[in-house]
From TrEMBL, chain A:
Keyword ATP-binding among UniProt keywords: yes
SMART domains (UniProt xref): AAA
Swiss-Prot/TrEMBL keywords: ATP-binding, Nucleotide-binding, Transport
Superkingdom of the source species: Bacteria
Organism: Streptomyces malaysiense
Record domain ABC transporter: where: 3-236
Gene Ontology molecular function, alphabetical: ATP binding; ATP hydrolysis activity
Identification of the protein by name: ABC transporter ATP-binding protein
InterPro entries: AAA+_ATPase, ABC_transporter-like_ATP-bd, ABC_transporter-like_CS, P-loop_NTPase
Keyword ATP-binding set for record: yes
Automatic annotation (TrEMBL), chain B:
Designated name of the protein: ABC transporter permease
Keywords: Cell membrane, Membrane, Transmembrane, Transmembrane helix, Transport
A GO term for molecular function: transmembrane transporter activity
One cellular component term from this protein's GO annotations in UniProt: plasma membrane
Family the entry assigns: Belongs to the binding-protein-dependent transport system permease family. FecCD subfamily.
Organism listed in the record: Streptomyces malaysiense
GO biological process entries: siderophore-iron import into cell
Membrane topology listed for this record: Multi-pass membrane protein
Length: 275, 321
């Protein structure tokens, strides 16, 4: 389902956090939201999953203002996987956590039906957490938890996925598996990503936030241009699409030769730059 | 329950108890049985056991809900200040007697008002910019509790020894004063709120996922907290009003159920009600048999009996590590 963020303003404790931010995610696209710490990425996501009401502007999911929808109606369209969600899930099994995704589909008197069981079971299989289904959620590793939370989001049968730093704390293999999983869902996605390489690998388009405004937006290679990386992130880098279609970014502390040349001695490969 | 009714200062055979209870339940006034036994069973024991069950269920359900609402495993009606509010109300009436009674307030009514007043205060103080953060709610509850406790202590200083004994007995809780005419109100409140809270089971589960995630799952977190706080203050106020401030049940019974059959509230709340009811019936039975013909207050036994078992269960459970 198409997401349109139209000129929103958000103020938290009298500080402007987002100013005149607009972006669009077309049906079926995966759009990455990148930017330095404190640039307003998570705040922008909150306005999308109806947790924070912008002071100005409007967020539309499937054409409707999310604040014109009821909380449950909005959650039937948009599912979110968040960073450090907190709460106290001791005693809930993985299957019970995934089943929470059915909550927006029920009122007070709603009982689980065949459709609920199908959605939950399907989400568990898609995220490969069937072997964990009976385990206590609290006993899982970081990577397992993220897959369970993604399964919960998919059990919502959402038309739009909102992901906040889904791949943090994961080892490299788990990251790629998770990214493949997200692409395979086919659901329209807006994902905050810290790692530009992963963003380049996962996304069709990128939106760069800086100090609460959109610094750039567009296709991955256009956005991750050397000038912008230097300007927004303060690093020198070179981006190129390899023959296998994968976009790679080479970083360095001082300016690099243009694309096509060999990497400087002090250039760090993307993997090393992560640390 | 029938067994609990049959045992007491005078033991009545279980078969006779069945006969008497069934006859009364069928609408008869008295039966062919010994009128004294009939009196003991139907007018003293039965309402007492029924009240113990209702109070146990109410306290346990209230504790289970509060633990989730404030996202804190230590929460119960005492930590959130409800019990201290009720205590102040009761103690005021017991010590000031005449003056307050003139205003038409008995001990139960005053205790109920005290609990609800504490609930309202916690509700008001725990809110900021329309948000009710779990930690702020707990701290507000603890602070409100201390204020009520100080006021209670101050009132007690001015009480006579006889009044003090009554106060003490009330604070430790008892269902000895159970009467048929108070049961319908208590039963309706306990059953209705328990059913209603169980209907919120799915949303209570969602609340376990954390506030932001719950919001993304379509739950209006602040409104849900407000509704649940009001319901549990009402429930706690009602049972404390008739039975005094009984500790431990609200804290431990929910954890016992969680440790043995999981945290899904749709299962947790009914089971908690059941176990809370059974537990308090058992404790009340012991309270009137251990030291026959005298009686021990319930509050002494609830923890004394339950804590060792609970600690054993805690040590056995690996999920908490």
């Amino acid at each position: 389902m198409r997401l349109i963020v139209d000129r929103i303003h958000v103020t938290l404790d009298r500080n402007p956090v987002l100013r005149d931010v607009s972006l669009e995610v077309r049906e079926g696209d995966v759009v990455g939201l990148v930017g330095p710490n404190g640039s307003g990425k998570s705040t922008l996501l909150r306005t999308v999953y109806r947790s924070l009401r912008p002071a100005g502007g409007v967020v539309r999911v499937g054409g409707d203002d999310v604040w014109g929808l009821s909380p449950r109606a909005a959650a039937r369209r948009t599912a979110a996987v968040l960073q450090d969600p907190g709460g106290n899930t001791t005693g809930l099994t993985v299957a019970e956590i995934v089943a929470l995704g059915r909550a927006p589909h029920h009122g007070l008197l709603g009982r689980d039906g065949a459709e609920d069981h199908r959605s939950v079971s399907d989400a568990i299989d898609r995220c490969g957490v069937r072997p964990l289904a009976g385990r206590d959620y609290a006993s899982l590793s970081g990577g397992e938890r993220q897959r369970v939370l993604l399964a919960r989001a998919l059990a919502q049968d959402p038309r739009l996925l909102v992901l906040d730093e889904l791949t943090n704390h994961l080892d490299i293999r788990a990251r790629f598996e998770l990214l493949d999983l997200i692409r395979a869902t086919g659901v329209t996605t807006l994902a905050v990503l810290h790692d530009l390489d992963l963003a380049a690998r996962l996304c069709d388009h990128l939106v760069v936030l800086r100090d609460g405004t959109v610094a750039a937006a567009g296709p991955v290679l256009d956005v991750l241009a050397p000038d912008l990386l230097a300007d927004v992130f303060g690093v020198h880098a070179r981006t190129e699409r390899h023959a296998d279609g994968v976009v790679r970014i080479t970083y360095a502390a001082r300016p690099l030769a243009r694309a096509g040349g060999t990497a400087d001695d002090d250039a760090l490969t993307a993997g090393a730059a992560d640390r | 329950m029938i067994v609990a009714i049959s045992i007491g200062a005078v033991d009545v055979p279980v078969g006779d108890v069945w006969g008497i209870v069934l006859r009364h339940a069928g609408g008869a006034r008295t039966g062919p049985a010994d009128p004294a036994l009939d009196q003991i069973v139907w007018n003293f024991r039965t309402p007492r056991v029924v009240l113990a069950a209702l109070v146990g269920a109410g306290l346990a359900v209230s504790g289970a809900v509060l633990q989730t609402v404030v996202s804190n495993p230590l929460a119960d009606p005492i930590v959130l200040g409800f019990s201290y509010g009720a205590t102040l109300g009761a103690v005021l009436v017991i010590t000031l007697g005449g003056g307050v009674a003139l205003a038409g307030l008995g001990v139960p009514a005053a205790a109920f008002l005290g609990a609800v007043a504490a609930g309202a205060l916690v509700f008001a103080l725990g809110r900021r910019h329309g948000r009710m953060a779990p930690t702020r709610l707990v701290l507000a509850g603890v602070a409100v509790g201390y204020v009520f406790l100080s006021a209670t202590s101050f009132v007690q200083l001015r009480a006579t020894p006889t009044e003090l004994r009554t106060v003490m007995f009330w604070m430790l809780g008892s269902v000895a004063g159970a009467q048929w005419d108070q049961l319908p109100t208590v039963a309706v409140v306990v059953l209705a709120t328990t059913v209603l809270l169980s209907l919120f089971g799915r949303r209570l589960n969602v609340l376990l996922a954390g506030d932001e995630s719950a919001t993304a799952l379509g739950v209006d977190v602040n409104r849900l907290r407000a509704v649940l706080l009001v319901l549990s203050a009402l429930l706690t106020g009602t049972v404390i009003a008739v039975a005094g401030s009984i500790g431990f049940v609200g804290l431990m019974i929910p954890h016992l159920v969680r440790l043995t059959s999981g945290a899904d509230h749709r299962r947790l709340l009914p089971l908690t009600a059941l176990l809370g009811a059974l537990y308090l019936v058992l404790v009340d039975l012991l309270s009137r048999t251990l030291d026959r013909p005298d009686e021990l207050p319930l509050g002494i036994l609830t923890a004394l009996l339950g804590a060792p078992f609970f600690l054993w269960l805690l040590r056995r459970d690996k999920g908490l590590d």
